[in-house]
Amino acid sequence: xxxxxxFGNVLSKYEDGVAVSEKITGKDFFICxxxxxxxxxxxxxxxxxxxxxxxxxxxYVMTMIMLPSIVCIILLTINSLAGALSVAGAFSLVRxxxxxxxxxxxxxxxxxxxxxxxCGVGYVGFGLCFFAVLGIVMYVLSVxxxxxxxxxxxxxxxxxxxxxxxxxxxxxxxxKYTQFxxxxxxxxxxxxxxxxxxxxVEVKEDINQKAFLDELRxxxxxxxxxxxxxxxxxxxxxx
Length: 239
What we know:
Largest sheet: 4 strands, antiparallel
Mean pLDDT: 79
């Protein structure tokens, strides 16, 4: 429909609206690669802007920049489109087998991959328009805080000796300092000599967190207690 315009395929040559050649030239390669890098950088900026409060990993930002160009190269260098898509899809899932990702982070991976695919098959204009539409939507949803829960749930991990009867022992302290608490999981650690209790809690506002932890330590024998506010320790947080 748009053989020679903004939405045309830069890898195809047209005569009377019909593609007659798909040979990749150096110019075409450079255009597709630069477009993929540009879109990857712009996607990383949207990711940063939409994660300023939730926190983000610098390595993930770098991934957003590299992924579209990597997928683009795969598609440019493999003759079979179906084979190229299979390789690109398998590559994009490697991270999820090693690190549990946040659903929104996973969506950015596929965002970057789709943009790379568009550039890799020559539809640079479609790739840029795809970024513009979805990037604006993601940023607006982030600014509007769409879908955020009214409460801020945290994870409390309490280590106890194996001979401590944990049922109900922490409930008075948790009721004092939290709006909500529920025991989610119990597991053994240190070759079965210790137990780890994992609670889902909603801590009350304006409480003394040190006093909260001190009271819990008095009950668990001064062993390790973790109150987890964020999922990863290497994230960058902006005010």
